[in-house]
Amino acid sequence: MRQSHAAFAAPDSASIPLHVVGSEGLTAWLDTQPERVRTWLEAVGFAAKTGQTVCVPDAAGGLALAVFGLGDAQARVRGRMALGAARGKLPRGIYHLASGFEDDELPEQLLGWLLAGYRFDRFRHRTGGDADIPALKAPPRAEARRIEVLAAAEWLTRDLINTPASQMGPEELETSVLALADEFDAQVSVTYGDDLLHENLPLIHAVGRASDRIPRLLDLRWGHEGPRITLVGKGVCFDTGGLNIKPGASMGLMKKDMGGAATVIGLAMMIMALDWKVRLRVLIPAVENSISGSAMRPGDILTARNGLTVEVNNTDAEGRLVLADALALADEENPDALICMATLTGAARVALGPDLPPFYTDDEDLALALSDGAMVEADPLWRLPFHAPYEPLIEPGIADLDNAPSGGMAGSITAALFLRRFVQKTRRFAHFDIYGWQPSAMPGRPKGGQGQGARAVLWALPEVLGPDIENRE
């Protein structure tokens, strides 16, 4: 928990009451308040509209309490983490929730508060500090430690994605994994450059060989008992598109093409910080897809780790190539759960937009658990199918597989089908086609890098692997 404002205030801190009120409950709540509070709120026109925030003074001119509006029921259905909006509107100080949320609503709202404190200020000369950001005491009935872990892990994911590619290449991504391993006493092995060929990881090598930033596979292991969980994250630290070069407008956000890696790093942090009884493995192919004389070419045929041949019909469909080798390696151990995260296709965004990533799995229990976890953890997901009739689209005839089927239809599904060809043993496999970016600021989610799906996975895994893996107090 590196950032102090990603944590709650000390329980014994003096604090200011914060009341959270929906518009339909405003009259009943006002009836419980002293006349001076009612008079003040009437004078300033407080109607509990969404995001409306009012500070009520005491007789000495200090701050007696604050009130935050939730709006009506329809507004609450449309949004999430509403309390996060309050953090940016309240003056500095320490607050406690005096009213407003049921127990089952607290985790989402408290997490929203902590996530709203995120700032990516590495490249700015700050004029303020942590003291300028209001703090909150967690209610005694809340799982404060778990919420703090989730917030800190999401902060790490956001930091990794937001960092420009000039400061976040394969080497720097490795440094981040090594730092996390050091914090939690995990072990990391790394395969570099031409050693990728010697270790039978040819697709990772083919994608990364054109860059002077050496490609590598990061392999973290943690834990000695319990089910095997393997996380695979796409770590393309910048994607020019290769010889099928992207237009400038499409290249502008490509520092986030390692968002899958950043998300599984955050998820791994959650699992280790919560001290789960599992054997965790994290595999990250870390490369830069660049242009040079040694770049892979359209029409090249590559042989993957598992022996399948792939015709490269678009060098900009490189993410599925590096993931193929990593998934084949992961599948050799036949883990109890295999999770793949990647900023993989624009087709997923066309279908579902930036806020609703699709996931794919053949395991019905895992699918149900992920859908439930998405709701419980306010971490939206939507299941799309491994649609078997589309299998011929990824079979070019000249090779076993085509990395970029022509026609452009069902692009997210065909990419998922491609990846599934490299997972033959593992029964519980899920692939997430995430965006990894928040296009405009929302409560708890400032514009910029964004983890997606990690909290839903964290909730789902004990449902399918057994509750004993959680080490809850």
UniProtKB/TrEMBL annotation:
What UniProt keywords are attached to this protein's entry? Aminopeptidase, Hydrolase, Manganese, Protease
Domain of life, source organism: Bacteria
Pfam family name, one: Peptidase_M17_N_1
PANTHER family per record? LEUCINE AMINOPEPTIDASE-RELATED, PEPTIDASE B
MF terms from GO for this chain are: aminopeptidase activity
Name used for this protein in its record: Leucyl aminopeptidase family protein
Q: Which family does it belong to?
A: Belongs to the peptidase M17 family.
Residue ranges of domain Cytosol aminopeptidase in the record: 314-321
